[in-house]
Amino acid sequence: MNNDNQKPLADRMRPENFKDFFGQEKIIGVNSLLKKAIESDQVPSLILWGPPGSGKTTLAHIIAQKTKSDFIKLSAVSSGIKDLKEVIKRAEEGRRLGTSTILFVDEIHRWNKKQQDALLPYVENGTITLIGATTENPSFEIISALLSRARTFVLESLNTEQLGKIINKTLRDSKQGLGLLKLKMNKKTIELLANMSNGDARTALNVLEYASKLAADKKITKELIKEAFQKSYLMYDKNGEEHYNIISALHKSMRGSDPNASLYWLARMLEAGEEPLYIARRIVRFASEDIGLANSRALEQAVSAYQACHFIGLPECNVILAQAVVYMAKCKKSNELYSAYNKVKSDIEKYGNLPVPMHIRNAPTKLMKKLGYGQNYKYSPDHNYQEKQQYLPDKLKNKKYFK
Question: Is the pLDDT of residue 232 over 50?
Answer without folding.
Answer: no
